[in-house]
Every structure is written in C-alpha cells, then in structure tokens.
Q: What sequence folds into this?
C-alpha cells in the first residue's frame, strides 16, 4: 500500500523537486501551498516529469481549520515534509513579525494536528544557518557543532523551530522527527521542467549568475574578496537540489519504516567547500559562457566560510550527494535557457 506524504510548500523550489523524488520512490503526495512565492503550474511540471499528478490543496499552513480539513480529507497521510516558510534572509530583517508569525504558526499547527490524525513523522527543512560562522576547529561542520546566535530573524526561526520540535517530542508527543540542515541548494531538475523561480532581483548567487549569463543582469557582483579564504571570497557547500530531494526520501523512509530514534538531525551537504570565485570559474567552464563580474564590498550578514561534514547522513541515512558541481551548474543554465525560450525571463 503506497504511503501518503503531505508536502507543505510543495510548489516551491525544493518542495517540487522532493515531490518528484517521493513519487519516484512510490509514495502518494498531497501538496499544500498558499502560492505566496510559487505558481500552481508547477503541479503540471511535476506530473510531466513523474507521470503522476500530486493532489494539491491551495491552503495556508497558518490556517489551523483549513489544515485540519486537509488531514480529514486525506486520512492516509502518514508523514509530513515541511518546507512552507518565509525564507529570504534580508526580508526577514525588514519584516521580523511576518517571519515569526508565518514560520512558527505553520509548524505549531502541524504539530498540533499530527497526533489527532495519527501522522507518525515529520521531516523539518532546517538550515546550516543555525551554525552561524563555525569556529575554524569546527570546519567541516558536524551536527554536534555549537549552535550560534542567529544573524537574522529568518535564521532564528529555523533555530527556534528546531527547539519547538525537540520540546514537543520530549514532552511525549507520539511522533518522530528528522531535522535536515541544508547547506546551499542549487540547480534544477535535469529535464528543465521545474527549477528555481526567484521573484524579482535574485538574492541568491546561482540565479544571479544564470541571469547575468543570459544578459538579464548587467554584471554579477562578488560580495567581498578580502575574507580569510584562499582566494579572498566566501566559501559555501553547494548541493544539487535533486540530491537534496533524495535525502528527504531517505529521511522519510527512516522515520516511517524503522525504529529509529524519535528525533535525529542530519547535515545535508556535499562536504566540499567552494568559493564564490571558484563557482564562477566552474560555471564558465561548464557552460562555455563568459560571465561579466566584478568585486564589490562585502554583503552585511554573510558568513565567511561554512561547509558540511556529511558523514552522519552518508552512514546513517545511506545518502550521499552524487552530482558534480559542473553538472549541477549545467542544470541551472539549462533551466535559465528554458525560461528565456518560453519568454518567462
Ligand atoms: C552565497 C554566496 C554571497 C549573491 C542563504 C541563506 C540560506 C539559504 C540559501 C534558504 C555568499 C555570494 C551572492 C551575489 C555574491 N536560504 N553572493 N553575489 O547567503 O550562503 O545562504 O541562501 O534556504 O539559509 O542564508 O546564499 O546564494 O545568497 O550567497 O557574491 O550576487 O554567494 O556573498 O558568499 P547564502 P547566497
């Protein structure tokens, strides 16, 4: 019997790619999304890729009554993957109350409803931002590295939501949870049918790179080249979004089908640190497209260097990031070309 999984934020970047991989693994998927930062035609794209149309409910996770109705309508839901959240670091500084209300209320509603509807497990979309800037001796960063004071309300919501889940489980809630701390998810599905659709001027590096390559942006700015790194630019752990999606399937299987601990945490990264300059050089080599870029002052709030030690996920989840940075960047460029071909960007 196919297990049914609720994917909140399932028309978003990571949620849509995860839905495809869940379907490929034989799960039935119900997507809940308020479409505040994505479009419902992503559902068509998911169906085109996997051959299966996920159920879709246009609902806001902050609406307790509506969410209760979703679980009543789909009584087979056994697990949840919770992506739905506001996630722009800069915007969270300008609108902290919106971020706290949205990101806390949506999780609290799910935790309230899980026991009532016999939902066994939840996978929470967390972030390496909980580590802040790890101390040199803690790089590459493991799950036991110290949690640092968040540098933004967005990062704080990730930290506090981890604590909310922990306290709920420690209080005896009849559920299990896995917290997945992502590093930098990038790229698009190899079919170029789904991908990252930033609103307006991209904040994140990869969409800015591909839009510069496409001539939509005049010049890419590298924020800072005076960091304490080999080439002076920041270092990150860039992980292919499809590999990240597959990690969620492994985590869901572990929560639902094994007698694993009630609460586990995993870093989901490649284990390889890549500088901004190295990324640009890799993009140019992978695509043959020359990028117009220049150094610019540092961006406030940027972490200097962070990358994962993914050994625990490799060993315990049986998951490993397999895609090369070159292939990942090729997928991002193929997606940008498709958007241009369809007149979408
Ligand atoms: C990456 C690197 C920039 C743009 C954030 C969140 C994280 C996650 C991913 C949600 C940095 C540099 C960027 C540009 C640049 N968000 N850069 N020029 O800040 O590492 O992580 O997004 O899930 O939680 O914190 O990602 O892509 O913004 O930046 O030089 O035009 O690229 O300085 O070093 P970041 P990013």
A:
């Amino acid at each position: 019997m196919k297990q049914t999984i609720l994917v909140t934020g399932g028309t978003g970047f990571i949620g849509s790619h995860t839905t495809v991989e869940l379907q490929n693994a034989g799960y039935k998927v119900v997507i809940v999304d308020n479409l505040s930062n994505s479009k419902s035609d992503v559902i068509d794209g998911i169906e085109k890729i996997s051959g299966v149309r996920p159920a879709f409910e246009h609902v806001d996770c902050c609406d307790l009554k509506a969410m209760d109705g979703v679980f009543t309508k789909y009584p087979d839901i056994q697990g949840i993957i919770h992506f739905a959240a506001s996630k722009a670091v800069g915007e969270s500084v300008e609108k902290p109350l919106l971020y706290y209300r949205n990101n806390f209320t949506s999780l609290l509603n799910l935790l309230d409803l899980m026991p009532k509807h016999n939902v066994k497990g939840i996978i929470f979309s967390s972030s390496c931002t909980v580590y802040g800037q790890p101390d040199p001796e803690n790089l590459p960063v493991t799950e036991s590295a110290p949690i640092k004071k968040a540098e933004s309300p967005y990062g704080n919501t990730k930290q506090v939501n981890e604590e909310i889940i922990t306290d709920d489980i420690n209080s005896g809630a009849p559920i299990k949870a896995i917290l997945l701390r992502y590093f930098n998810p990038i790229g698009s599905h190899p079919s170029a049918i789904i991908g990252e659709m930033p609103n307006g001027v991209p904040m994140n590096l990869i969409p800015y790179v591909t839009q510069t390559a496409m001539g939509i942006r005049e010049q890419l700015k590298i924020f800072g080249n005076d960091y304490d790194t080999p080439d002076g630019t920041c270092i990150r752990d860039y992980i292919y979004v499809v590999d990240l999606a597959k990690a969620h399937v492994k985590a869901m299987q572990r929560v639902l089908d094994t007698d694993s601990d009630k609460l586990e945490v995993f870093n989901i990264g490649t284990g390889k640190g890549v500088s901004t300059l190295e990324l640009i050089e890799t993009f140019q080599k992978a695509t043959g497209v020359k990028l117009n870029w220049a150094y610019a002052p540092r961006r406030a709030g940027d972490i200097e260097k962070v990358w994962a030690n993914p050994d625990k996920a490799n060993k315990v989840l049986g998951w490993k990031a397999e895609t090369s940075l070159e292939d990942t960047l090729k997928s991002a460029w193929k997606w940008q070309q498709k958007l241009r071909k369809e007149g979408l960007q």
About this structure: The pocket of WQD is lined by residues 87, 89, 127, 129, 184, 203-205, 208, 220-223, 234, 236, 276, 299, 302 (CB under 6 Å). The two ends are 42 Å apart (CA to CA). Residues 4-185+239-269+308-321 form a domain with the Rossmann fold fold (CATH 3.40.50.720).
